[in-house]
Amino acid sequence: MNNFTWFIPTIVMFGKGTATKIGDQIAGIGAKKIMLIMGGQSVFKSGAYEQVAESLKRNKIEFIEMTGVKSNPRVEFVREAIARLAVTPVDVIVPVGGGSVYDTAKAIAAGAKYNGDIWDLVKGKASISKTLPVMGVVTASATSSEMNNIAVISNHETEEKLSFTSPLLYPRLSIIDPELQYTLPERQTVAGGIDAMAHVMERYFEGNEIPELLWDQHEVFLRSMLRCIPRLRANPRDYDARAEYAWTAALCHNGSLSCGLKNRGDFSSHKLGHALSLFYDTPHGDSLSIMMPAWIEYVSKFNPLPLERFTKNIMGLDELRSTFRSWGAPVTLREIKVPECDIERIVDNVAKLGPIGTFKILEREDIIEITKISW
Questions:
Q1: What is the pLDDT of residue 207?
Q2: Mean per-residue pLDDT of the chain
Q3: Is 181:47 a contact under the CB 8 Å cutoff?
Q4: pTM here?
Q5: For position 22, which CATH number holds?
Q6: Which of 12, 254, 260, 262 is the most buried (most CB within 10 A)?
Q7: DSSP three-state, residue 96
Q8: pLDDT < 50 stretches in the chain
Q9: Same domain, 227 and 163
Q10: List of long-range contacts for 300-305, beta carbons under 8 Å, 24+ apart
């Protein structure tokens, strides 16, 4: 097992009714005014907004609202929120939503304390030295943004979808009430679960033979999602399945599964999938249900060991694709109506990042082959 340092400063409150305590927690750090970050109507349908707003009012916390975060969050929204904060400062950024809302909140929290454009921080042209605290409520589990120091933002002007990290991007508090996810559309539950599985598989297929404990940990989380997603498709209000799903998703990408790995994960599939989200607004989970199997199929020719173990203990690659398809998720570019003539555009967008990957270093020629497999 390789050396590692693991740091998680986020406080997690988990379970029924916990969203009603958000105001108490914010008041507990002396905050008087916050910015509420949300997506669309789902926060109202689930009851999350009502619970959060009532909790804030009860604690005499003033709040301003920014709604309209998209599933692949845009830098324009972040800039708009930062500009608003310059006129109306707040003490805390409060995301109420899923990973995109949390990522947006993190970017706003960092940008509000930076004397320059937020894209400088995303591109690594400047370092994050200070942020506003982020204290939020999860209403759609998938990305583990509620428990990690990562944010992903899209810039359509530069045709980039990029992640950026900092120890200062960890949320101070995340509240996870599984009941607030009862009203999620089935497609969102499926896509979120596949995203969580992909976070595990990016590490499972990092290209090195890893200690038995780490193999076992990865397989436990994969089995959890394979168990929970069919149950939630059958009954979205199955609390036990919803709770296990939510906690599994939070743990899949909070850094714990990277501990002891040589490379801490590959994440080529995510970079391949980001191009689909950028150009076609493909939901993140759908981009991964397409690109993850194609990537595994290609790189396993160079090192069959991880796939052999995966096939023995979880399922074969064909069964993985069949499972995704049975859940209603796409497994080819054709299914999301990407024309074959667009393959070069996708490849160009990924290739400009330079060689990617750890399982196999992927050059442009490799990216072409993987994209062809996915079509």
A1: 78
A2: 96
A3: no
A4: 0.95
A5: 3.40.50.1970
A6: 254
A7: strand
A8: none
A9: no
A10: 300/205, 302/359, 302/360, 303/207, 303/359, 303/360, 305/209
